[in-house]
Amino acid sequence: MTDNSLITELVTRHGNKRQSLIPILQGVVEKESFISQTRMRQIAKELDISPADVYGTASFYSFLNTDERGKYVIRICKTIVCEMNNKDKIMQAIKGLLKINVGETSPDKKFTLLETNCLGWCAEGPAMLINDKVYTKLTPESVREIVFEYLQSTDN
Ligand code: FES
Predict the structure, then answer these.
(1) 141 is in which domain, residue-wise?
(2) Going by C-beta distance under 8 Å and a sequence separation of 6 or more, which residues neighbour residue 69?
(3) Torsion angles phi and psi, residue 70, rounded to 5
(4) Same structural domain for residues 110 and 87?
(5) What three-state secondary structure class fits 113?
(6) How far does residue 85's CA lie from ligand 1's centre (Å)?
(7) Ligand 1 centroid vs 120 CA: distance in angstroms?
(8) Which residues line ligand 1 (CB under 6 A)?
(9) What is the C-alpha separation between 80 and 85, in angstroms, rounded?
């Protein structure tokens, strides 16, 4: 059973009213990268609302992940300009390096690979995000180098 101290701390900071729900959910994502069922039950208890209510809010907002994600979330733009600029080759290079498919998380929980809609960097596509950092003008070689740096990083 996951201890409740994170939720208690977030409730102390944001309050235990219904309107505290989103900041509390964001606080959990910041700390743990996703909101587990256990956390949802703990939040429901603290705020005196139903777990279904917590789940409904968490799953409505795409920035409130309810699936476990890796430490680094890679999002490759799949929209038309990047698509026409060899986005598939970028994706293949990453899949080859990390040995995971779109929607999957590596067994060591370091990477999650996702596709995303236009990131607003179309003129410099193909583009991707790793967490909140944008990378543009990608080639299979440059993307392998970038991801390799994250693979090598020891801050995990
Ligand atoms: S189409 Fe990829 S960033 Fe806009």
Answers:
(1) 72-152
(2) 33, 34, 105, 112
(3) -75, 170
(4) yes
(5) strand
(6) 10
(7) 6
(8) 77, 79-82, 118-122, 125, 127
(9) 8
- pLDDT, one tens digit per residue, over 45-78 is 999 999 999 998 988 876 777 778 888 999 999 9
Residues 119 and 143 in one domain: yes
Per residue in 16-52, pLDDT tens?
Answer: 999 999 999 999 988 887 888 899 999 999 999 999 9
CA 15/CA 83 separation, integer angstroms: 45
Ligand 1 atom nearest residue 119's Cα: 3
Q: Which atom of ligand 1 is nearest to the CA of 81?
A: 1
All residues at 6 or more sequence positions from 7 whose CB lies less than 8 Å from its CB, including other chains? 24, 28, 39, 42, 43, 46
* pLDDT for 88 beyond 90: yes
Which numbered atom of ligand 1 lies nearest the CA of 80? 1
CA–centroid distance, 143 to ligand 1, in Å, is 16
Q: Tell me the two tokens of residue 60.
A: 């409505």
Q: Determine the 3-state secondary structure of 135 from DSSP.
A: strand
Q: How far is the CA of 95 from the centre of ligand 1 (A)?
A: 20
Is the domain of 32 the same as that of 82?
no
